[in-house]
TrEMBL record:
GO terms for cellular component: endoplasmic reticulum membrane. It catalyses: a long-chain fatty aldehyde + 2 NADPH + O2 + H(+) = a long-chain alkane + formate + 2 NADP(+) + H2O. This is aldehyde oxygenase (deformylating). It comes from Panicum virgatum. It is a multi-pass membrane protein. One of its GO terms (biological process) is response to stress. The keyword Oxidoreductase does not apply. Keywords: Endoplasmic reticulum, Lyase, Membrane, NADP, Transmembrane, Transmembrane helix. Belongs to the sterol desaturase family. Residues 65-205 form the Fatty acid hydroxylase domain.
């Protein structure tokens, strides 16, 4: 949860798709331990559950003693052995291949590593039960505490205060920290202990940077200001769970309604209500591109709320506060996603720029690149297109661009006034290529439809066979015609040198982002000093497109 942990992360890098895929079967160790526990519990030597005490302090005391005297030193020496010669390459290198430790990394490894950990966890339990001091609370309590300490160490978030170590210096030898474990994971030549650095001290393998680095991380000195922010919003209740801190595996794939998410719908619905009444914009994910930190923030509002008239003021306030926060932090560019730049809501961002004329952060709607992506999808031999949503911000730009190319544009609109206003913006010699139509029947012979307004199955039937539907309508139209083809929403693939990217942007494929997101990225990489709000500057469509290609972004 970056909105809680951003300032206390040990390693600033992100968890990428490669690491997520490599750790996909992290639960193999849990399955192995479950099978071993079932075999032990079924053995004649193990007392029946009904015979076990709920609590026995002798067992807890004995388990603690055995952990310190058996599990800790045994794991320490076994771990050191795994870092030597062929043992490391065969049995331990894969575990260290994860560049950023995560709680799931704790369970990622070979069967030999899982057996060593199982033995380290099971020895205190076995000793307590052999002495007749076992209890139900010991089984559950010991396993929970063991797993918690493992996950804490691998969390990559410093949760132990350096002040505690300063007040009680001996404590640093009794409890490791995420910083301590992270140093071992990266440098591989020190900090081998299970949970107690005492054994590294006795073995002479403590990393000299452990305590100073832990202090720096604990004080937030490892934090960094993002260069670019993509300000998104939640689409609906189910998709609200498509985030790394809910289900990392699901968020690493394009969004789909998965069965595993449905039982949690009531929980997600409760969080929606909570966010509605008491929350602010928060950080969802991040990645690095050519040394620049790019973050995605989310306004705590859901798609349907943008269409409630009484919610308009509150949503704009949330967006405004996010822009002002980014400005105060020193963010260079903030790009507005989807409904956050709705024309009826805030004039495509114009409201904020007009209200705060001295903003240092550049506010961008990204629609210039969105228009460029759509326009560059249209084959060069097309002479006529049918355009719905023709008088919208994107529709206007597309119509004006195409008429300059001498392509006839059938603009579907009932408003003659709005049509004429757009037509008058076109050069005199190009105005004849803009034609107002009021019915779908007018496009019966046109095979290139550019859709900026939802189409019902009945409306789609007017398209001739072989029609291709380009679209910029949200949500995308449903493809009812089998004899036609349907384009996806405008999107671009990020450059190949992107680092730390491990989540998919809604329904987009891995490494692909919405064109408005990509437009903000280009604005940041180019270092442009102007805002991109309000109406789209048609003259800049080709400029932005060429800049995107120059920086390695490619059409998706």
């Amino acid at each position: 949860m970056l909105f809680f942990t951003r300032r206390r992360r040990v390693v600033k890098d992100g968890v990428d798709f490669r690491q997520i895929d490599a750790e996909w079967d992290w639960d193999n160790m849990v399955i192995l331990q479950t099978l071993i526990a079932a075999l032990v519990a079924d053995s004649p030597a193990f007392p029946g559950v009904a015979e076990l005490r709920a609590w026995d302090p002798r067992g807890w005391a004995l388990a603690l003693l055995l952990h310190v005297t058996v599990s800790e030193p045994a794991f320490y020496w076994a771990h050191r052995a795994l870092h030597r010669g062929p043992l490391f390459s065969r049995y331990h290198a894969e575990h260290h291949s994860s560049p950023v430790t995560q709680p799931l990394t704790a369970g990622f490894g070979t069967p030999l590593e899982a057996l060593i950990l199982t033995a380290a966890m099971g020895a205190p339990l076995a000793g307590a039960f052999a002495a007749g001091a076992g209890s139900v609370s010991l089984v559950y309590g010991h396993v929970l505490l063991f797993d918690y300490l493992r996950c804490m160490g691998y969390s990559n978030v410093e949760v132990v205060s350096h002040k505690a170590f300063a007040a009680v210096p001996a404590l640093r030898y009794l409890l490791y920290t995420p910083t301590y474990l992270s140093l071992h994971h990266r440098e591989k030549d020190s900090n081998f202990c299970l949970f107690m650095p005492l054994f590294d001290a006795l073995g002479g393998t403590i990393n000299a940077k452990s305590w100073e680095l832990q202090k720096e991380v604990d004080q937030g000195m490892n934090d960094r200001v993002p260069d670019f922010v993509f300000l998104a919003h939640v689409v609906d209740v189910v998709s609200s769970m498509h985030v790394p801190f809910a289900f990392r595996s699901c968020s690493s794939l394009p969004f789909a309604t998965r069965l595993v998410l449905l039982p949690l719908w009531p929980v997600a619905f409760a969080f929606m209500l909570l966010q509605w009444f008491c929350s602010k914009t928060f950080t969802v994910s991040f990645y690095f591109l050519r040394g620049r930190l790019h973050q995605t923030w989310s306004v705590p509002r859901y798609g349907f709320q943008y269409f409630i008239p009484s919610a308009k003021k509150g949503i704009n306030r949330q967006i405004e506060l996010a822009i002002l926060r980014a400005d105060k932090m020193g963010v260079k560019v903030i790009s507005l996603a989807a409904l956050n730049k709705n024309e009826a809501l805030n004039g495509g961002g114009t409201l904020f720029v007009s209200k705060h004329p001295n903003l240092r952060v550049r506010v961008v709607h990204g629609n210039t690149l969105t228009a460029a992506v759509i326009l560059n999808e249209i084959p060069s031999n097309v002479k006529e297109v049918f355009l719905t949503g023709a008088t919208s911000k994107l529709g206007r730009a597309i119509a004006l661009y195409l008429c300059r190319k001498k392509i006839r544009v059938l603009m579907l609109t009932l408003s003659t006034e709005r049509f004429l206003k757009i037509q008058r913006e076109a050069p005199a010699e190009s105005q004849q290529y803009l034609v107002q139509v009021t019915k779908y029947q007018a496009a019966q012979s046109c095979k290139t439809w550019i859709v900026g307004k939802w189409l019902s199955p009945r409306e789609q039937r007017w398209a001739p066979p072989g029609t291709h539907f380009h679209q910029f309508v949200v949500p995308p139209i449903i493809g009812f015609r089998r004899d036609c083809t349907y384009g996806k929403l405008a999107a671009m693939r990020l450059p190949k040198d992107v680092e730390g990217l491990g989540s998919c942007e809604y329904t987009m494929e891995r490494g692909v982002v919405h064109a408005c997101h990509a437009g903000g990225v280009v604005h940041c990489l180019e270092g442009w000093g102007h805002h991109e709000v309000g109406a789209i500057d048609v003259d800049r469509i080709d400029v932005v497109w060429k800049a995107a290609l120059r920086h390695g972004l490619t059409p998706a």
